[in-house]
Batch of 2 targets.
Target 1
Amino acid sequence: MDPSFAYSMGALGVGVLGAVAGTFAGSAVWRGVTNKNILAAIDGKDKEFFQRIQKFRPQGQLRLSVDNPMPDYYGESIKSIQGYRAWLKKQRNVRMTLHAGLMAG
């Protein structure tokens, strides 16, 4: 085996291991340092937010294609209240389009 290839694979392996370990260590430090009441409030807000995302996104995924994907299915683009409202409007438009397509077809 070529030494440069071995060094490259080793560097890649260490980088991946560092990224995974850093994620877990950062989460553990965050959860260890932050007040438990604040963590409970944050977790409650996250749970409520994801339930709203599931409630308001259209469920007609079968009628969509690669050429016509559902816009932001998981809500990754939501960064503010205005972004959430814009996301709701897009999802409502998709739901209405799917509903109109089902009624016509």
Target 2
Amino acid sequence: MVNFIFPQMKHEEKPPEENLTELMEFVLLDFADVPHLQKFLFGLFSIIYIIILLGNGTILLITKLDPGLHTPMYFFLGNFSFLEICYVSVIFPRMLTNLWTQRRAISFAACATQMCWFLMLGATECFLLAVMAYDRYVAICNPLHYPLVMNHKVCVQLVAGSWVSAIVFQIGQTFQIFSLPFCGSNLINHFFCDIPPILKLACGDTFVNEMVVYVIAILFVLVPFVLILVSYGKIISTILKLPSATSRAKAFSTCSSHLIVVTLFYGSATISYLRPKTQNSAGTDKVLSLFYTIVTPLFNPMIYSLRNQDVIMALRKLLCK
């Protein structure tokens, strides 16, 4: 099971740390292997980052300003859009700076901070997707009790729980990883401080650290995914029992956007982390990690705006003001 979750993290005996100088900073190689594309990549990623900020910022704005969107589903959507903005902002500004200045050094503390925020926000995204699935489950399977079950207080508690639950664990995991001795090479063959490339630079035995990573991955990735599957299993079962094709289509339309986002998030993560690893797969890993990092934040606003009449009407009202 653990190798299925993170097959790229195969335990290896590391050289002992004796007689080696402790590292004070790392170097993010990002896309240094394609020097002729640095300015092009800077322009491309700048445009993508701006689109993500504008798209998710617009969703966040209309869910706050439009009274017609003051419902649990859009409350969760607004929080999810804010989370996506935070998620990409942990990675993109430094990556863009590195591409523009060609200065790729990152301090020990900055690297640990970036990893910690990335892990916390990634875990929060998993939990928030599970909360959104539960919201759709209550709305479709228990519509008469929906206003009572999903009242504002409960919604706030669910969102707060999604944000807070990961903090202690991910801070602890980051502290444990960066408490390891780092010596020898300081080159991180990635565009941000992710766990697998950092552990490769650690001296000594990292077996315990890798086991902790696997356990936390099960708690914060697999458990929410199972909850999502259970919710949608019950949703689909309920929809299939509806008497008419029109009512089935209407019921499914209320959760189709969320289902697409879940598929994108877990599908891209599966491609990035669960594919077979080879000796020279670092370049491919970076490209797939980039895809995994940007695909959901980039397409989330498009999915909810193009497939949701309430969001489209709110956008029109906002633009007409």
